[in-house]
Amino acid sequence: MPTGMPAAPPPDPARRKRLWRLAGLTAMIVFIAGCAIALTVFLGFNIGVTGLLLGTVAALLPVPVLIGCFMWLDRYEPEPVGYLAFCFAWGAFVATGTALLVNSWSAYLFEGWGLSESLVAVLVAPFIEETMKTLGPVLLLWRRRREWSGITDGIVYCGLSAIGFAMVENILYLGGHGYAASNEQYGPASGAQQLLLIFIVRILFTGFAHPLFTAMAGIGLGIAARTAARPVRFLAPIAGLLVAMMIHGTWNLLPSLVAATGETVVLLYGYLGLMIPAFFGTVGFAIWLRGYEGRLTERALPAYVRAGWLSPPEVATLSSLGRRHAARRWAKRVAGDAGLRAMRNFQFAATKLALLRDGMDRGLFKHVTVAETEERALLDQITADRAVFVGRDPQTPPARWDGERYHITFPDGVSRPIDAPASPVVPIPITAYYR
């Protein structure tokens, strides 16, 4: 190097990492968009533009309801919208397109072998469809493991993927097998009638089928995300995926049994004996699980109470959605809209802190210093959010929690220590000063 020439700056690892992440994100968006375009062209070519439009409108109707149900499960620690959109788009375009190709190719092979095409729905479709629907959340778990807080997240991510898959599949059934096929033979009136009949069966009665199947795989992924045991992290997703395939395959077997026996009552028995119990069992488990994971704050945050970072009433306000809502109303009453926003941020950060502490206790972090840095950032955020509404309630005396007792300033101006009650169940935080 010539004398006097400045040395080249060293490469910035953080900048290089950001560039790789941007490149990966761009590639994924282009890939999913390409699958969406190819699938749209395929459907339009096979069922016609009218069938595609009518099928799309009909298939979109249940989507907001189904997504709302899964969002209701995830109210304690809502997942980033971008990750939810990724899972939905993956299921709608990548999983559906791949399954359509594999199922069509398998039907061609089965026909050449002299086998019934109905076997594809029993032997091939459950395997490829459940695998592809689950693959998107698996990629998310691999690249964004920190965003998985438990089984509920697994159910939500896999459920969104399954909703996207079911939406596009319904377009094919409603617009193709429903409207287009009947319209070609008997006219538009018959096509509309057939579309309505398929809508009643596939949407109103079995619209929950695909989310139900893939939720089994989501349970396995959620278990794997919150354990440090390598065998469990490997076997739990496989077990969940196998259960999803078995339920899916059993459900697809019923129409074949109806065709073989001529007894349509078999389908009714299968619906009442398999789908309904599985549906209500999964819903009951998900509701119980939401409450259990919602009470994680009661199990993980007492350490911060003893250290003086949180007060017992603050932890008590996080244990249920009702108490969280009451705390938000209180914050808005004493500090306006800014207080409401601060309380929401406070609750979200406290929930993230509980998940982080639980993960540290489980040994989920290879680099403890990274977790400790995030822990300190969350504690600082909690302190900053609290400062927006603390001391604003004129009915609450100034108080300080030191980790063992309250130091409350009485009307005479004297601060006196007060022991904490055995069950701090007040629905709003006390006014407090923290380090």
From TrEMBL:
Keywords: Membrane, Transmembrane, Transmembrane helix. InterPro entries: PrsW (IPR026898). The keyword Transmembrane applies. GO terms for molecular function: peptidase activity. Pfam families: PrsW-protease. The keyword Membrane applies. The chain crosses the membrane at residues 22-45, 51-73, 85-108, 120-142, 154-175, 195-222, 234-254, 266-289. This is RsiW-degrading membrane proteinase PrsW (M82 family). It comes from Catenuloplanes indicus.
